[in-house]
Amino acid sequence: MNCPRCGRELGVKRNLCTGCGLFVGNSQASPETRDGPTSLTIEGFAVPGDLDGCQAIEAIPLLPLAIEWWIAKWRLPQTRAQLLGEGVRITDRQLPQIYNLLQAGARRLEIECPELFIRQDPTFNAWTVGTNDCAVVVLHSALLNDLEPEELSFVLSHELGHIKCRHVTYGSLARSLTQFMGALDIPFSKVLAAPLCSAITYWERQAEFTADRAGLVGSADLQGSVRALVLMALGSRKFLPIFNLPEYLSQARELEGFWGGFTEWAGCLGHPYTVKRTRSIIEFAASGTGLAIFNHLERKGLLARRTPTPKQLAASTEARSNVVQAPTSFCSSCGFQLEPKDKTCLVCGEHN
Description:
The chain is an alpha+beta fold. It folds into two domains: 1-23 and 312-352, no CATH class; 41-302, no CATH class. 55% of the residues lie in helices and 7% in strands. It is built from 14 helices and six strands. The chain has helices at residues 31-35, 48-58, 63-86, 96-109, 141-146, 149-164, 167-183, 189-219, 222-234, 245-254, 258-266, 274-286, 288-299, 310-321, and strands spanning 88-90, 115-119, 126-130, 135-140, 329-330, 337-338. It has a four-stranded mixed sheet with strand order 1-2-4-3, with helices on both faces. Strands 5-6 form a two-stranded antiparallel sheet. Helix 7 (167-183) runs antiparallel to helix 8.
């Protein structure tokens, strides 16, 4: 069997082509990994801390319904009116290239396609407003200027992940609770609010890990997903071609000690450190759960497949027969490029 993209012969027990990094599935894998789920459920890819937080919020009597009503009847209409006035709504007739990325992510994540707006803003950001049943996704214009389609697909699918995993309403509820406790004019109100703030921001960080997994699944492109996160940290595409990913990931290992967790907790950060998010999606992609989900997408015909052209096939054959110049090689576990001398992937640690 040959890779449908580059034509390189595929060995047994390979999840990704070592010639171009394309996910190709693995007929020799275990039945659980090979067959995968029959549908994409929240429980099938969300991190445990996120699921626990959602269940805790759902258990609050009446409050989630009240917050959802307030968002649907007051906040969402106002925000949408502002976006209609100052932004650009993306549809199949307005910038369809971007809309197609949104549709593809929604199909893979098995949700309805929400409204999408572009808002002029020089910061790297995207956000979602609304309820779990009716949401609007907003992209800042800086992302359009600096991200390639594969990277933008990750950002869009990340926001779709928030919708699928019920983060939209629950995030608004969590922030409302924090603001209410902090605004109470009673002695020690700030002290009383601190544990709640800590618990809520911990859940928000776990929800971001889940949304990153959704971004990977919706984009179906690990390298594009990682590049998107790296650009959030680096802020420059100019140096991306010489960026040392393994060296960057080593920073995550240094954050495993006391100070990494303490600074996230003490700062009440709603997002995990970017380097931790980057390492997390690489680990998820190479895990049994991640591979099972990709096999599920493959069975449904939702993974990109490109038939190699005769020129590509000829170039691949020439590279394999050229003993002087070693062909480019990619890790069969995570899909990242290997140096000719590397037997072990510096990104995921898999022996190739």
